[in-house]
């Protein structure tokens, strides 16, 4: 059986207030062609389908249009929820989608057997069984008896993840003996390389899960959450497919890809690069250098390329600030947009100029970074600081997972 692994679509994502709807449409068109050309029979989507728990009507429309395009290819689909997704929203049309051979698992089921999905091949026989495990939320992993210290809570989360995967493996082994099994997961594995666009999960990523804890039963583990595509050093082939399009400027150099498995040959996936629909460019230099770089831009992308500027000067100079603003306002190069700019003066002066010259903007900081700065202003003992930070991480995660009423 030929299987394609993707994740972290983040439908509805905005990059510096710039909609990425066209990027996703182009990706889906490419994905459909890829599925046809490679004879893909099963598509795995490992979480974070949407960027927000309460996505806009436009984002929902894109989601259902994408599913219909994929369904027309006679390709079975298994989709799991991520930490950005609303489990209830994903699960709501589950029965209808199941009739179309699309299995959506937004939340962990009380009976884990309901997360185990057998997949029939062209012969009509079951060829693969998939443990479709979504993002495991705090309520899925811990009980009141798990302890109250910071380290106790971290260990409870790790053991909760491990036990969930081992339980799923046991169901596969018992109910579908001698049939190859795959697992899907959405989590933060220890040792992976992150980008700026992922939210911290499971107590601020502190409960990093060791890949060896997945065990050695599954033939392949298809992960989501980390946007940079990479292999995880587990006992079996374990991979993050990464996001299909760049979701932050920190991902501008990533080679976006999907992963294809041909189970008749191996469970080591083949990496298939996704075309670049637009470039994210970060241009740095003094005023003169930036002017030169902007004038030498060459456009060979389908969509407008987005630019982040950073002017670096030795001394504070109000004239150069004015010239930078003027240059940005007058910039008009077809195929390019400047979406953000910042200034860094190496020899900062005190006063208003210092505030302008290089101080981070609040919109650039994650909530955890702001809280760490505040925490640093207090002289707490290390253990107490950890407890406070752990409590903040749990509150933040709970807040991010709350569904916003549609009326708002």
Task: Walk me through the structure.
The chain is an alpha/beta fold and 408 residues long. It has 3 domains: 2-273, Purple Acid Phosphatase, chain A, domain 2, CATH 3.60.21.10; 280-347; 367-403. It has 11 helices and 17 strands. The strands form 4 sheets. Strands 6-5-4-1-13-14 form a 6-stranded mixed β-sheet. The protein has a 6-stranded mixed β-sheet with strand order 7-8-9-10-12-11, covered by helices on one side. The chain has a 3-stranded parallel β-sheet with strand order 15-16-17, covered by helices on one side. The longest helix is centred in the middle third of the chain and has 26 residues, at 150-175. The two termini are 45 Å apart. 34% of the residues are buried. Mean pLDDT is 86; it is low at 350-358 and 403-408. One of its GO terms (biological process) is DNA recombination. GO terms for molecular function: 3'-5' exonuclease activity; endonuclease activity. InterPro entries: Calcineurin-like_PHP, DNA_Repair-Maintenance_Comp, Metallo-depent_PP-like, Mre11_N, SbcD.
Taken from the alpha-carbon principal axes, the silhouette is globular
CATH topology description of the largest domain: Purple Acid Phosphatase, chain A, domain 2
**What portion of the residues fall into strands of 2 or more residues?**
15-25%
Question: What is the tally of beta strands?
Answer: 17
| Structural class by SSE content | alpha/beta
Tally of individual domains: 3
What is the CATH C level class of the largest domain, in words? Alpha Beta
Taken in chain order, the helices and strands follow as EEEHEHEHHEEEHHEEEEEEEHEHEHHH
Strand order of the largest sheet: 6-5-4-1-13-14
Could you say what the CATH architecture of the largest domain is?
4-Layer Sandwich
Residue stretches low in confidence (pLDDT < 50, at least 5 long) are 350-358, 403-408
How would you name the CATH homologous superfamily of the largest domain?
Answer: Metallo-dependent phosphatases
Mean of pLDDT: 86
* Count of alpha and pi helical runs: 11
Radius of gyration: 23 Å
Q: Helix amount, in percent?
A: 25-40%
Report how far apart the termini are: 45 Å
Let me know the largest β-sheet: 6 strands, mixed
């Amino acid at each position: 059986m030929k299987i394609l692994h993707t994740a972290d679509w983040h439908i509805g994502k905005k990059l510096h207030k710039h909609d990425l709807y066209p990027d996703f449409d182009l990706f889906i068109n490419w994905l459909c062609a890829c599925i046809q050309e490679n004879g893909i029979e099963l598509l795995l989507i490992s979480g974070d389908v949407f960027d927000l728990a309460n996505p806009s009507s436009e984002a929902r429309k894109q989601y259902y249009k994408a599913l219909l395009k994929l369904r027309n290819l006679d390709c079975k689909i298994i989709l799991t929820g991520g930490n950005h997704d609303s489990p209830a929203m994903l699960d709501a049309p589950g029965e209808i989608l199941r009739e179309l051979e699309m299995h959506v698992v937004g939340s962990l089921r009380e009976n884990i057997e309901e997360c185990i999905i057998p997949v029939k091949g062209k012969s009509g026989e079951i060829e693969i069984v998939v443990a479709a495990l979504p993002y495991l939320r705090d309520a899925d992993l811990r009980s009141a008896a798990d302890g109250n210290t910071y380290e106790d809570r971290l260990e409870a989360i790790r053991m909760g993840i491990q036990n969930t995967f081992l339980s799923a493996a046991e169901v596969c082994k018992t109910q579908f003996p001698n049939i190859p099994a795959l697992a899907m997961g959405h989590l933060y594995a220890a040792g992976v390389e992150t980008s700026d666009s992922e939210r911290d999960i499971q107590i601020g990523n502190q409960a990093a899960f060791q890949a060896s804890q997945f065990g050695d039963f599954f033939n392949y583990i298809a992960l989501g959450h980390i946007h940079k595509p990479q292999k995880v050093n587990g006992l079996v082939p374990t991979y993050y497919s990464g996001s299909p399009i760049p979701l932050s400027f920190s991902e501008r150099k990533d080679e976006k890809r999907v992963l294809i498995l041909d189970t008749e040959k191996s469970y080591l996936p083949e990496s298939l690069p996704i075309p670049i629909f637009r470039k994210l460019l970060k241009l740095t230099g003094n005023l003169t250098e930036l002017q030169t770089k902007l004038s030498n831009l060459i456009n060979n992308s389908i969509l407008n390329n987005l630019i982040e500027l950073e002017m670096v000067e030795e001394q504070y100079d109000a004239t150069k600030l004015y010239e930078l603003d003027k240059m940005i306002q007058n910039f008009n190069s077809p195929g390019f947009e400047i979406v953000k700019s910042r200034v860094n003066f190496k020899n900062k002066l005190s006063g208003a100029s210092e505030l302008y010259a290089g101080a981070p903007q609040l919109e650039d900081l994650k909530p955890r970074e702001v809280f760490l700065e505040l925490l640093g202003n207090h002289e707490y003992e290390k253990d107490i600081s950890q407890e406070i930070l752990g409590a903040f991480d749990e509150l933040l995660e709970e807040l991010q997972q709350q569904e916003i009423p549609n009326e708002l």
